[in-house]
Amino acid sequence: MSEAISGFSKLSKEEKINWIANEYFSNKEEAISIIKQYWNNDEKLQQLHDEFIENTISNFYLPMGISPNFLINGTYYSVPMVIEESSVVAAAAKAAKFWSTRGGFKTKVINSEKIGQVHFLYNGDFEKLNTFFQSIKSKFFAETESITKNMQKRGGGILNIELRNKTTELKNYYQLHATFETKDSMGANFINSCLEQFAKTLTSEAQNYNDFDDDEKNITVVMSILSNYVPNCIVRAEVSCKIEDLAEKKIDNPKEFAEKFVQAVKIAEIEPFRAVTHNKGIMNGVDSVVLATGNDFRAVEAGVHAYASRNGKYSSLSHAKIENGIFTFWMEIPLALGTVGGLTSLHPLVKIALEILGKPSAQELMQIIAATGLAQNFAALRSLTTTGIQEGHMKMHINNILNQYQATKEERIAITKHFENNTISHASVVELIENLRK
């Protein structure tokens, strides 16, 4: 591409594809064919997908799998997971089945409070600003009544609004810090609409406040936006059993396994380099269900990792202990989710995923996702502290390598048999394929 293109968004879908093919590909026809190959044959359904975002040219597929046997608070769930990484669904399913015979997952929502802020600059006396805020606080609620009335009917709405002085960190910087309950919706649009009205109320009322001088009246709103950090929207998931009940095929000595498992978690609690990878494993489970149910995994990721750093150092989200012969493994994570609105009412496969889960409320979905994340973490730590992570992962990954090299049925049989008793690596698989073809 030698120069910027003007008016790309105004081109038709066909024109966009042709431009991309002409600009970036030597084999233009092949590029166009691949792009169109992923279109849905149902034109109405394809148009629905086209309108999710801007400048759409095709659909990008990710596999959707099912992890069955999740026993959560006495109810069995089959959990839909959307992810491209080998072994994640298998690991979650294996952990779910393991704990289904040991009492299952115990989960609970600790709080479901969400946060939004109006960030503004004020040049004046703080006590005067605080008196002003207290005098108009009721107007923030009154002037958002048209926005909040439907949410209030469902039991949600604005919980509280605080004035926060942040001038020790940035000159003249203050916040309206608001908390919300949004029930079964994630609530981003609702919260942002409320915040923008707060900003209008703040600036207009300041202009009419007689105790302010001219500088103090000129409050500057920098921005009004929800926060994806939701430390008071927390769900807890836990599993526990007697140490001897941990015994299974690859756990001959359950006491030794439990002690090693607890040490592995403690390492993740104190070592950020390990904690990042440890928590990434949790998010393999969390994100895959967040995606499957049409929620925003980027928002969830940002909030979760901020929560992992809340004490000033990045640390493990999960924890483990042994007390009185009982092994307990648990975590608490922030999850701001919705089961109504957004893609939940638009994307056909999101509707299917929610149907499979029994049409959960937002709080029920929080608990299902937390249990899936904990299961994923348990599966990873069990592998790490017993056989090693690569044994199971590479067995799953080998299929991707065989597909990459378009292995024949005969080659697949020979390669699978060879690696029953040999160490698997990408290089060793490729080398064997090349040898078979000589």
Keyword list:
18% strand; four-stranded antiparallel β-sheet; 438 residues; globular; alpha+beta
Q: Helicity level, as a percent range?
A: 40-55%
Encode the helix/strand succession as letters: HHHEEHEEHHEEHHEEHHHEEHHHHH
* Strand element count: 10
Distance between the termini: 41 Å
Secondary-structure-derived class: alpha+beta
Q: What is the average per-residue confidence, as pLDDT, rounded to a whole number?
A: 94
Strand content: 15-25%
| General form | globular
Strand order across the largest sheet: 3-8-10-9
> Spans of 5+ residues with little confidence (pLDDT < 50)?
none
Q: State the helix count.
A: 16
Give the biggest sheet.
4 strands, antiparallel
- Rg, Å, rounded: 27 Å
Would you give an account of this structure?
The protein is an alpha+beta fold and 438 residues long. 49% of the residues lie in helices and 18% in strands. It is built from 16 helices and ten strands. The strands form three sheets. A four-stranded antiparallel beta sheet has the order 3-8-10-9. A hairpin with a 7-residue loop joins β5 and β6 (173-181). α13 packs across α14. The chain is globular. The two termini are 41 Å apart.
Topology, pairings included?
Elements: H1 13-24, H2 28-37, H3 43-50, E1 64-72, E2 75-82, H4 88-100, E3 106-109, E4 114-121, H5 126-142, H6 145-153, E5 157-165, E6 173-181, H7 188-207, H8 214-217, E7 220-227, E8 234-242, H9 254-270, H10 272-292, H11 297-308, E9 318-323, E10 326-334, H12 348-356, H13 362-385, H14 389-404, H15 409-418, H16 426-436
